[in-house]
Recover the amino acids of this structure.
């Protein structure tokens, strides 16, 4: 019976690693794609989502360490670094979005940004579902928590997609910095939860 349990747990751990490496790989590619799209369109929301992808890489790395049996002290230090990164992201986007709105800067259209955020939203929702189920089966709160972060990443991708689409279709230039504010809200919430120990 124990052997079957160990085999099942090993299989779940492999699935957990696969989900995290998949998230890691997607976000590594995403940083490059989003950087190109953000510079081309001069989009605050795309730049912010690119920074969020960088933070997601850190979060996935933390979970990979944890699944490998790494000590809790190292995990706490890594989480604090991620919390600091979220705080810096919030400050950067709050300042940039406010400046863009104040000077009425109009970002360009970004077909690449629209395509990437649309696909990213779908991929993140699939990964988040897999992490939630695997984390529950393993009774692993770290994997389940990071699954929620991945789900929010999908929501943010959808929000940025909406802003880009409104700018392209309706000429609503302000939709881009408003999408940036949505990421600010998320970044502040994540930083607060990490530093308060809720993660």
């Amino acid at each position: 019976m124990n052997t079957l349990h160990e085999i099942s747990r090993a299989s779940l751990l492999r699935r957990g690693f696969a989900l995290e490496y998949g998230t890691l790989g997607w976000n590594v590619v995403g940083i490059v794609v989003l950087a190109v799209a953000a510079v081309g369109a001069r989009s605050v929301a795309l730049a912010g989502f690119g920074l969020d992808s960088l933070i997601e890489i850190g979060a996935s790395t933390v979970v990979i360490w944890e699944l490998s049996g790494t000590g809790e002290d190292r995990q706490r230090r890594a989480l604090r670094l991620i919390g600091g990164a979220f705080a810096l992201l919030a400050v950067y986007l709050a300042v940039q979005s406010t400046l863009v709105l104040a000077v009425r800067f109009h970002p360009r259209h970004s077909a690449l940004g629209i395509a990437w955020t649309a696909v990213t939203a779908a991929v993140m929702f699939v990964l988040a579902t897999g992490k939630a189920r695997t984390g529950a089966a393993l009774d692993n709160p770290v994997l389940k928590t990071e699954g929620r972060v991945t789900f929010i990443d999908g929501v943010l991708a959808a929000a940025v997609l909406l802003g880009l689409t409104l700018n392209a279709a309706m000429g609503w230039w302000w939709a881009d910095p408003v999408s940036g504010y949505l990421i600010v809200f998320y970044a502040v919430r994540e930083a607060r939860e990490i530093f308060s120990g809720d993660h």
Notes: The chain has a mean pLDDT of 83. Helices lie at 2-41, 44-67, 72-103, 111-138, 141-170, 175-196. Residues 2-196 form one domain.
